[in-house]
Amino acid sequence: MKTDKINPNSGKYREALQEGFVGTYFGLSVEAPTVSSNACTLVANAINSPTYTGAAAVTATLPAAEAGSVVVFNFKDDPRGGTAVLTFNCAGSDVWETGCVMPTTSSNLITYDASVADETNLVFTPTNDSVNIYSHGSTIDFICEEDGKWYVNAGKWNPDAAVTNGAATGTMLFAS
Description:
Elements (H helix, E strand, L loop, with lengths): L1 H5 L8 H5 L9 E3 L7 E3 L4 E3 L9 E4 L8 E5 L11 E4 L5 E2 L4 E6 L2 E6 L6 E5 L13 E8 L2 E6 L16 E5 L1
Parallel strand pairs: 1-3, 2-4, 3-5, 4-6, 7-12
Antiparallel strand pairs: 5-11, 6-10, 8-9, 10-13, 11-12
């Protein structure tokens, strides 16, 4: 619960939430990591905009999770060009913070997926149409407050224009 994370006496206090690091891109550089052999390495303390259209799978590996690091992934392209997955992969022995929540879909409705202990991948599977829940301009924020762990958040959520009640596709799911 967020109120626990902004209360310094709760034992679950998260400095980044209190100081406004989540959701602000002030001071970050802008990068365009090259995708080679269906993979790229994201840059710390930057907004990363590698090419991903859904036509070919891409594995985007995060840098080592070091406290104070922020990584933003920007969907610069609309991923409706196919159904090839985009996998965000933690580096080395890094993991997602337990309890991160990401919007996804199920039966054409928007729902959520939460991370559990020791998960290291976040996988987006688009659909080859104009009703993906993540589209150009959407961002995924990765914030490290504790070495070895990434907190994940849908920064700016920009679905395709055709997403409506009963017509939402594409999944974003945590995995090991």
